[in-house]
Amino acid sequence: MFDLISIAHAATEAAQTEAQSGGVLGTLGINWKLFVAQLVNFSVVMWVLWKFVFGPVGKKLEERRLKIDKALKDAQDVERQKTEFEAWREEEMRKTRTQTAEALAAAQKEAAQLREKLLAETKAEQEKLSRQAKEQIKSEQEKSVLEIKSQIGDLVVLATEKILKEKLDNKRDQELVKKAIDTLK
Known about the structure:
mainly alpha, 4 helices
């Protein structure tokens, strides 16, 4: 670095000497040695800036640009996934609602069928009980009629026995018949 400074210093001195001597460039106000020295100094400064400033800053800017691009791409992917998930969720909700409605309709239909079946069974049971009650009443009536007939027959036999035992005359017959009728009442 010190060499560059001393070279630049020597070039400046040489330029001053030539400017004093004249020449084409001197008339234009350009000292070619000073110009070369400034060109060398400019090149050294540019090389240092490029090596230690522009290069690392450029790399950091490129890295940051890549991170931003990646973040944007990731955000787009997340947005796409969110949209796909929302569509999937809506489809699943629609399917669930449809299945629930179908299950509810099936349950209502089954309940109606069960109610009809229970009503039919209850009606059949009522008819069976009614029929059994009627049969029992009829059986009791027949039993009562038979019992009454049996009692009447016993009474007729008794009355006949009495009549035959006590049959003496017509007057007496009428009294006995009257008596038998009175006992029947």
